Input
Amino acid sequence: MKKFKLIFLLSILLLSSCSVAQIAPVRQDGVAVPVEESPQNEEVNQPAELGSAALAALTEFYHSLNQGRYDRAVELYGGSYEELTYFNPTIDPSDMAELLRAACEMNGFMCLSILSSELVQADNQQEIFFELEFANPDGSLFILGPCCGADEETMPPVSVFNVQVSCEDEGLCQVLDLPPWVP
Output
């Protein structure tokens, strides 16, 4: 069911970037302006294009982490490494690939594949927010349970994680959040 939800969301995203009816604006002299020259067309499609680019970057970032391709993950990550340098004081802070490797392999960050994603907000500042569900290695839904002596009532299990992606005008997008952490 989650796979169909992802396919459905991607279809909507792709369809929203296409014009169902192309209505050409008309200049005062009565000449139609071709749609591709219309400045309005560019603004209408920009959020859909950014959403698509953001989803691609998001998907590749988590897939790269999951597959141990940390150099590629560094290119797709624009968030802070402060937490990772705190966890790994013996690793050179400028070695971002090694910090991501340590996060996934030693520090308890859950570098899992994405099970489902949903675009929840895209604002005009080119910040795009997604809700993600992750898959355990066996394909089941990852659920972050209570920790540190808490019970489910005081710390309810979480299976949906909010992730922010930042995109530039050129369509370059970077993920700003690390994977879920299990202490």
Remarks:
- The chain is about 35% helix and 15% strand.
- Residues 1-45 have pLDDT under 50 and may be disordered.
- Strands lie at 113-122, 127-135, 161-167, 173-175.
- Residues 35-175 form a domain with the Nuclear Transport Factor 2; Chain: A, fold (CATH 3.10.450).
